[in-house]
Amino acid sequence: MNQQDDRVRAQALQSGFREVFGQDPDGVWAAPGRVNLIGEHTDYNEGFVLPFALPQSTYVAARRRGDGQVRVHSLFTEETAEFALEGLRPGSVDGWAAYVAGMCWGLREADVAVVGVDLLIDSTVPHGAGLSSSAALECSVGLAVVELSGTVLEPLALARIAQLVENDFVGMPCGLMDQMISMLGEAGHAVLFDTRSLTPTLVPLAPTGDAEVLVIDTRAPHRLVDGEYAERRRQCEEAADTLGVTSLRELSDTETEVAELLAPLTDETLRHRARHVITENRRVSEAVDLLRDGDLAGVGERMRGSHLSLRDDYEVTVPEIDLAFDVVSGAGVFGARITGGGFGGCVIALAPLGVHQQVEEAVTAAFAEVGFSAPAVFRAPPADGARRVL
Ligand code: GLA
After folding, report:
1. 373-383 residue pLDDT tens
2. Is this prediction's pTM over 0.85?
3. First to last CA, the chain
4. Which of 14, 301, 371, 390 pairs with 337 at a CA distance of 20 to 30 A?
């Protein structure tokens, strides 16, 4: 990310804070959204993911206060919420402020002596596009509150608290990928994360500078996201149970043919779900090796395989996403796929330099032809994770 950008945002937030709260903030913190290069719906199956952090971030200006109250104003909704730290529990705050209240609750549950704070929040992460605006909000608020409470937490510990907040306070049964990458992202790199051992490994993304990742935000409205996500998760658990393993990851690590592994599963839907998870984990491992070898066409093929598996076996795509994938795949890129949980959101493409415009024109024309809202196409250089900016 661009430090210049960070500074400009932080200064704007600082003066905004003065206007809203009448005093200077103690500091400004930021945490990014993400795209996932490959490894989808594997993180709650103890599998592998390969995301990277976006330059787009959520910024939080914060000031400590002495009375155990939290006041938070959001510049993206122009709303203020206020709550007492004492008495916070799941269900006590809802809407966007639940992520903020949830982080205070989660940190207290983790024995951090959380102090009251005034918070002003702004974000450049597109909202509702499957780019983890909620993880960016959780991690930026978490970082600010931890520091103002005079504590230090390992980035991964904070990510796990944020995941717990999603699961238990907000009610979204997500895995750890989004919060992990928002905390641990590094410019120029994707992060291979083994969600069983919780080990992150940096993988340089196109170190020779001959490729870039493009994001195609389809702007398709998210549909049924949370219910469908929870159902997929439950189906994976049931499949693992039937196959006698604690997680589907265990089956990805073997050399055995997938069809043979799946033979005991008689339920057709569960077979499809499990096949996606097992093959996706294998694709992530292959993609990492291919990236290290500089074989971008090979990485692109794995991305394509991932998309088809998410479309046909995991069934999390929607017409806008599949159209974007088809069009972009034919526009001179190495490979493309849906990124994130699905049911709307974005397609990403690994592309040689110089095809950005071609991709944008092709997808814009195709969307106009069938009457879909105009998509947005932008470059996604891998950026840094959560940080203090002022
Ligand atoms: C959402 C969740 C993640 C992950 C992805 C799918 O982004 O928050 O934990 O499961 O979906 O890969």
Report:
1. 999 999 999 99
2. yes
3. 15
4. 371
